[in-house]
Arsenate reductase (Glutaredoxin)
Amino acid sequence: MAGVTIWHNPACGTSRRVLEAIRAAGFEPEVVDYKRQPPGRAALAAAIAAAGLTPREAMRKKEGATWLADPRLDDGALLDTMAGDPALIERPFVFTPQGVRLCRPAERLAEILPG
């Protein structure tokens, strides 16, 4: 099946497990190391919206500076920050014709992977 893409971080165990699960299901995805090839702000915003998340929900908490937890920061400020520092994007995002999911936990992959 064409059209499976993963925003992947090879250093992340969950991201590696999701990539393995995609391949085990018989699909060879487009693998995008999003830290080396970061999505633009518009692509990031579209992925977050398609996954049914808010920018705050899609932000990696472990990597974030404490100031990012400030509830007064709006979605635009969070998107700008993630677009400028892709290490702050939670992972892995997976894109299939059935939808987009932030596959954390890895079991979320089943919601969009055919078969």
About this structure: Strands lie at 5-8, 30-33, 93-96, 99-102. The two ends are 11 Å apart (CA to CA). Residues 13-24 form the longest helix (12 residues).
